[in-house]
Amino acid sequence: MWIEEAEELFKGYLPYYVLIVLPIFIIISPASPVLASHEFPVYRMQHFDLHGMSHGSRSAAVNLEARSLTDWSTSRHCIIVKLQDLSIDHFRNIRQKAGALLVVLPNDLSKLNAEEKQHLLLLEHDMLSQEISVPVYFAIWTSQLETILDEVSQNVATNDLSKSAAEAMISSVAANGYQFVVSPGTTSVKQDVKLATIQGHLPGYNQDGKVPTVAIVAHYDSFGVAPNLSFGADSNGSGVVILLELARLFSTLYSDPKTRGNYNLLFLLTGGGKINYQGSKKWLEDQLDALDGSVIQDASFVMCLDTLSAADSLYMHVSKPPKEGSPASLFFKELKTAADQFSTVTVDGVHKKINLADDILAWEHERFSIRRLPAFTLSTLKSHREMSRGTILDTRKNLDVNKLVQNVKVIAEALSNFVYNVSQGEILGGSLDVDKNYIEAWMDYLTSQPRSPQLLSNKDNALVTFLKDNLNKYLRDVKVSYAVPDKRDPDFLFYDVTKGTVNVYSVKPAIFDLVLTFAIIVYLGVVYLFVQKFSLLYATACSLTSSKIKQN
């Protein structure tokens, strides 16, 4: 009778123990599952359309097994790799065959050596020059990410051909893997995009009644391989800072009727500079196509400021060399004269014709030159192809403030000499001099946040509002106009996912699941047979026991 009760006990309660109680004990065991998961902020690669062409990474969602740079094989893998180890050839192969890419960046880019910086510049340029179908993310180095990288790299050893089949099988089962999950939602076109252009002016005075205009222009956005990592200290934070300092200096001069210049000074902070100067394009269309005319129509020249702290050399980029005696030619001479007071500063002219067949203009002044306005760009870069104009390396730590202050002094001196038609050093100096503290404060503010165009494209952007409020202190009639993409045939489109969170889960490889499944099946089969055949087993055991007793 007790045998039947025992059999019922096994049949009635053992399955519940196996299916319910045992998992509960596993869950409350000291090995917490939380230790097997991590979260890291990640920054998505650029994703935008310009003139109907796609740029950057087109996908965002990731749910793939992590593999090292040398151990991945299919589109089911997400490759995690340090920046220094990722070559252009590696990236091109990943772009075609892998499922996703996570690049781990150093936590301080300014500490990279010259060779590593050049490597990053070339890699960024290659990544941004083509459309990429797979998700590409960037993460900042942490000790936890380093541990994950090491463990993923160690799994390469499991594929070592020198091992026996048994050793390879055991290594595969024992290896630890990681699953990367990024769920940013559906990537969609960003709505209500507005690229702001801020304008203000200082009115000049001329006894003849007609007052010509000098326009000073700088775009305030930045660019890099990832929007949220694009701080643009030099390109074009330096141009914005110089424009703001010129506005401060000349507002003091123009506030007194006795020292008001013979030129109107027009100041423009334009948006969308890094996407083919869309802000300048829209502003010019509004101004020059208006029936009532515009002050820009009487411009003696338009001076664009772009990347002005990279070197001691200043270059005046023009699409058409200015005629001898023209305002632009006279300003160029003043620029050379002002640079002579600094032994290290040189000034040269660079002539490059506008290639209308190119989709992307080289410099911002070309927008004005196309509309037959005399214009040029001042820069410390000799060529528009310099990759430093759009990189995540362009940070505050990599900027030389002393060179920036020096170039501000040269430009301010040349402009004041031109506006007042005086000799060198007669206007600026003493209390009316370039303020290094003012420049540093603005540079710190501008580089405290990423300024990629899509991040500044909402109407009430805080940076745009702050710039407008500051210009209101020095200029008259400060106002903001907006460039909006056409709904039917847009020149540019932005997408709404620029960053996210990667959830990293510690997992076993597929071979482990296969072995574990087989072991569970065997275990449950043995338990099932034991429960079902318990009476037979008991009877056999009893018969064996009784036979031994009889023999004794």
Automatic annotation (TrEMBL):
Keywords: Endoplasmic reticulum, Glycoprotein, Membrane, Signal, Transmembrane, Transmembrane helix. Its main location: endoplasmic reticulum. One of its GO terms (cellular component) is endoplasmic reticulum membrane. GO terms for biological process: regulation of signal transduction. It is found in: Endoplasmic reticulum membrane. The chain crosses the membrane at residues 16-36, 510-531. It is a single-pass membrane protein. InterPro entries: Nicalin, Peptidase_M28. The keyword Cell wall biogenesis/degradation does not apply. Residues 211-408 form the Peptidase M28 domain. Belongs to the nicastrin family. This is Nicalin. It comes from Zophobas morio.
